[in-house]
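Might I ask for a little of your time on a matter of protein folding? The record follows directly beneath this note:
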Amino acid sequence: MTTRGATLDDLDAIMALEHASFPTDAWSAAMMREELASPHCWYVVVEEAGRVIGYAGLRAVRGARDADVQTITISEAARGRGRGRALLTTLLEEAGRRGVHDVFLEVRADNPVAQTLYASEGFVEVGRRPRYYQPDDVDAIVMQLDLRGWAARRAEGVASAFAESEKGTGSGAEPQRDPDPAPSSGSVNAPTTGKGWC
């Protein structure tokens, strides 16, 4: 599996996944093209055997203290293997590099899988938008993450794992890493619909 920056050359593959994952409220190709070309957005794709199986996007204006997860999508056949979490981590790490303090997203109220993922990383519900997702009349749950707190928890986890590794082996070996690491899917006022299916 390879995670890399998305380009306009990925538009067709991204749109195929977009329509498969969000059949009733998919973004148009023109909207996605704008996202990919925007200097305020940062998109990545996941490839497996040369095929795009997922993508994710972050809107983080340089110098701003908040950012928005625009979308996270993994193909149905590739779900349930931690790839959605890896994409989310990739977006959050980029937000941290941009000096962001708070990350927002919107998730469909009828998508408990995505809600559970976001909550497990520290996102908390801060509001709801009734009937936000059309034409399905589904509410949007607005969630927020304190990114500095998230980064501190991750650093503590790595330090703790390293200490356990040294204690257990006495070899000074580094802690075991995720065998499928990702390299280092809106705010309350986001102009586009944030979505997530992972």
Notes: Helices lie at 11-21, 29-37, 83-97, 112-120, 147-169.
